[in-house]
Amino acid sequence: MLTVTGLTKRFGSATAVHDVSFTIQPGEILGLIGQNGAGKTTTFRMLLNLLQADHGNMTWNDQPLSLLSRETIGYLPEERGLYPKMTVVDQICFFGELHGMKRAAVMAVLDQWLDQFQVKGKPTDLVKDLSKGNQQKVQLIAAMIHNPQFIILDEPFSGLDPVNAGLLEAGIRRLRDAGSAIIYSSHDMGNVEAISDKLVMLKNGEVVLSGALNDIRDQFGQTRLYIQSPLTQEQLLSFPGVVGVAQRSRGFLVKLAEPQAGHDIFTAATQQGYIPEFSQQAPSLDEIFRMKVEA
Amino acid sequence: MKKMDVIFRQVFFKNLKSKTWLWIVIGPLVLAAVFGGVFWLMNQTNQTSKIGVVTSSPALTSTLKASSDDDQRYISYSSTAAAKRAMADEDLDGVLTISTQPTTHASLIERTDGNGINQTQLQSVLAQAHTKEVAAQLKLSTTQLQSLFATPQLATSSVSVDKGKLVSRSAKTQKSGAMVGFILGMLIYTFVISYASMMAQEIGTEKGSRIEESILTAITPQAQFFGKLLGILALMAVQMAIYGVVTLAGGLLLQRLPKNPLSSLMTNIDLSGISLNMLIFSLAFFFVGTLTYTVLAALTGSLVANQEQIGQATTPIVMLGMLGYFGALIVAGGTSPILNIASYIPFLSTMMMPVRLGAGQVTAVAGWSALGINLVFLILFTWLTVKFYQTNVLSYSDGGMLKAFKRSWQLQRAARKPKPVKS
C-alpha cells in the first residue's frame, strides 16, 4: 500500500505542493485531478524520486518508497516521447529490459499487448511511421508491459479518441484487477468517474477534495434535479429551496438548496400522472470540479 | 550494472547501425585513399624529361650529359634538324641549341604536350658549363676553380633539453615527429568532433523528445550517463580497431606491390624519431582528450530543452576543438609563452601537446605532466557533470542553454540543503 503524508515541495518562494496526503491500496485506482499547475506532475515526480520533497513521508508497505525497486514501477509521463527511428518491438523491449525483463519474456507477451490495445501496424514498423494515437498506445504498453505493482499515469487519456480511451480504460482496469496500485491524472471528468475508486483534487498545490468517488459526491447532497414535466421554468423557480433553473434539451436542470426541496416539486409535477423524467442526483464530478476551482 | 548494460547496448547497437557512424568510420578512409591515390598518380605521371643538345663544344656536351638525372636527361644530337625530327617523333621533350661564338648563347624549343622542363635546373647546368669553359680559357687549375667557388658551409643540428641535458635531434627527426604529432592532433580533432557530437545528439534527442523521464523512472541518471559514455567509447574502440586492421592490410598490400607507390613520401619521414614512449603518450592523450570532450558534450546535451537546440549543444565543443586544432597548427611551426601555457590547459592540451612532444619542444616529463593534469581534470569534470546531469536532464528552460544551466545550478544548491524527509 502506498501512503503519502504531508508531502510538500517548494521552488524558491513558490509552493508547488503543500501538505498532500493520500493512500492507495493494491488493486485500487486513484484519480488525481486539478487545473494545470495545480501540482499533479510535481507530486508524481516526487513519488518517482525524480524530485526531492521538502517535507513529508512516502511509504510503500510501511517501507520508504525510495526503497521500492524501480522495476516494479510503471510511469507514463505527461509529455509523450519515444525513439522515432526505432521499431515498435525494439522500443518496447528496451523499456521492458530497463524494468528487468528479458527480451524473450517481452517478446512472449508483446503480441497480446498489441492486440489488447489494437495497435495498428506491424511490430517491425518504425515508431515515426505510426499515427499519433498508436504511438501513444505503444508508449503505454512500454510503461506497463512489466506488470508493475505501482503505476503512475500522467494524463493518459489526452489525445485519445473515445474508442482508444475506452481501450485504455479497459487496460487500466485489467492492471487494477491484477493487483496494481494505480494513480493517474486527467482533465476529463468522464474518464475519472468511469474508472476511479477514489480521487484527490489539488488546487494551487493543496488538497481540496479527497476520498471515495461516491462519498465525495454525497458530500454535496442530491441537489441536482433533471426533470421533464408540465411545469414551466417560472413555476419551478417559485418552489421554496430552488436556487436556479436552466433549460436542458427537453427539460430543466433545477438546482436545489436542500435535497428535501425535491419532494414538493415531485408532488406538483406528478399531479396529472406520468412524467418522462425525474432524476435527483448529487452534482456531477465535472460540476464539483468547477465549483472547487471557482471557489 | 545490468541496467547500465541495457543503456550501453542500446547506444552501441543503435549507432553501430546508423549511417552517421558508418560515415564517421568510412569518411577518413575515403579521404586517405583519395590522397594516397592522388599522390601515387602524381608520381606516376612525373617522368624524366628528355632534352636534345646540339652544340659544337664537346666540353659543353659532356658537362650537360654528366648533369643528367631522374628529372632531366640530356642527349647529344649532331644537328638541330636531327633533334627536331626526334622531337616530332615524340622522342624528345625539348631541343637545346648552344652556340659558343662569339659568346655562349642557348635557345630552347619546348614541346607543349611533352614532360615539363625544369628551366631553373637547365640554367644552373648552363652556368656551370660556362664557368668551366671560362676557367679553361683562363687556364685555371681545378683546385683554383674550387677555391674560387667555395662558399662557407652552414651545418645545422637540432637539440632538445631533457633533464638539463642537450639531446640532439636531426632536422628530419624533428620534422617527422612534428608531422606525426600534427596528424595525431588532426585525428584527435576528427574523433572529438564526431563522438562528442554523437553524445550531445544522443542526450539532446532523448531530452528534447521527452523520453528521458520514462527512462529515468527505471534507471538512475548516473547509470544512464555512464552507460551512454561506455557505449560511445565502445564505438570509438571499434573504429580504432577497424583502422588498425585497414592500416595493417594496407601495409601488407603495399609490400606485395612491385613498387611502393608511397615510397617517396616515406623517405621523407624518419620513423625512428617516433619513440614507443611517444606512441603510448599519444594514445593516452587521445583517450583522455576524446573522453573529456565527450563528457563536455554530455553536459551541453543535457541542457537542451528541445531538439532544435541540439545545434547549440555542439557549438562549444566545435569552438574548443577548433581552438585546440589551430593551436596545434601554430605550435608545429614554433612556440611562445602563451602557447606553452595553453598546451597544458585541458581541451586545448588534447591537440597541442602531442605536436609539441613530437617536435621536441617539450620533454617526456612535461608531456606526462600535461597528461596528468588532463586526467585529474577529466575525473573532476566527470564528477561535476554527473551531478549536473541529474538535474539537467529533467529541467527544461525555453530561455536557452545558459538559463537552463543557471536553473540547474539553483536546483543543485537547493538539493544540497538538508531535508527533513524521511522517505
UniProtKB/TrEMBL annotation, chain A:
Signal peptide: none annotated. Keywords: ATP-binding, Nucleotide-binding, Transport. Residues 2-229 form the ABC transporter domain. It comes from the Bacteria. InterPro entries: AAA+_ATPase, ABC_transporter-like_ATP-bd, ABC_transporter-like_CS, ABC_Transporter_VariousFunc, DrrA1/2-like_C, P-loop_NTPase. The keyword Flavoprotein does not apply. SUPFAM superfamilies: P-loop containing nucleoside triphosphate hydrolases. Gene3D superfamilies: P-loop containing nucleotide triphosphate hydrolases (3.40.50.300). The keyword ATP-binding applies. GO terms for molecular function: ATP binding; ATP hydrolysis activity. PANTHER family: ABC TRANSPORTER ATP-BINDING PROTEIN ALBC-RELATED. This is ABC transporter. It comes from Lacticaseibacillus paracasei NRIC 0644.
